[in-house]
Amino acid sequence: MKVKVVTKILEANDRIALENRRMFDNAGVFVINLMSAPGAGKTSLLEKTLEMKTAMRIGVIEGDIAGTDDAERIERLGAPAVQINTGGACHLDANMIYEVLGDMDLEKLDLLFIENVGNLVCPAEFKVGEDLKVMLLSITEGHDKPLKYPLMFQESSALVLNKIDLAPYTNVDMEKIRRDALSLNPGLRIFEVSCRTGEGIDRWVDWLKEVSKK
């Protein structure tokens, strides 16, 4: 019975996700579902991306259990942001996104980030209408995460390894992260960045420009 219930929930979610995708395509906006554990640096990555002052018009839908801090940080950089508070849910779903699309002028955007709730399990299971998913992993979380949470890496088109400036102060095995992630998803693009120093952000932004061209 539980399997049937979960299947019905995912099927209903997928139908709404298709409608979201239709709206995104009609507006000509490319959508990235950004996922990570809490504190890995999703909002910091978006801030650094915005600070690059590219020609891309970027908007952000922020997902958190509570609070508005992340949306406020994005708005301070001049980008439109909409906050979704899930009230306890561990992920964003397609219906949550559908409900706020009227608050975001999609016609004025080239790229929309959906910053999912910090969680390494649920977000990968729910489509929200995105063009692709991106997984962000702080290297301080350890090199065991790809094999512990395989779906996140299997569902993502890119993996951003953040906080590489802290590598000398940890025992993290960066090569193991890369090797295990690629064993789960051979086509995964991997970017090594530091949102504190800005290292690697240019390569990440160049990739965004490339994939977001429709």
What does this structure look like?
- With 214 residues, this protein is an alpha/beta fold.
- It has a single domain (2-211), classed as P-loop containing nucleotide triphosphate hydrolases (Rossmann fold).
- The protein has eight helices and seven strands; from the N terminus they run αβαβαβαββααβαβα.
- It has helices at residues 2-27, 42-51, 69-75, 94-100, 145-148, 150-155, 174-184, 201-211, and strands spanning 30-35, 58-64, 81-85, 111-115, 132-138, 158-162, 189-192.
- Strands 3-2-4-1-5-6-7 form a seven-stranded parallel sheet, sandwiched between helices.
- It is globular.
- The N and C termini lie far apart (42 Å).
- The model has no long low-confidence stretch (mean pLDDT 94).
CATH topological fold name: Rossmann fold
Class by SSE composition = alpha/beta
Low-confidence stretches: none
Alpha-carbon Rg, integer: 17 Å
Number of strands: 7
CATH homologous superfamily label:
P-loop containing nucleotide triphosphate hydrolases
| Beta fraction | 15-25%
**Sheet with the most strands, sense and barrel status:** 7 strands, parallel
Q: Mean of the pLDDT scores?
A: 94
Please identify the top-level CATH class: Alpha Beta
Helix content: 25-40%
First-residue to last-residue Cα separation = 42 Å
The DSSP helix count reads: 8
Strand order in the largest sheet: 3-2-4-1-5-6-7
Coarse morphology: globular
In sequence order, what are the helices and strands, one letter per element?
Answer: HEHEHEHEEHHEHEH
Q: How many discrete structural domains? A: 1
| CATH-defined architecture | 3-Layer(aba) Sandwich
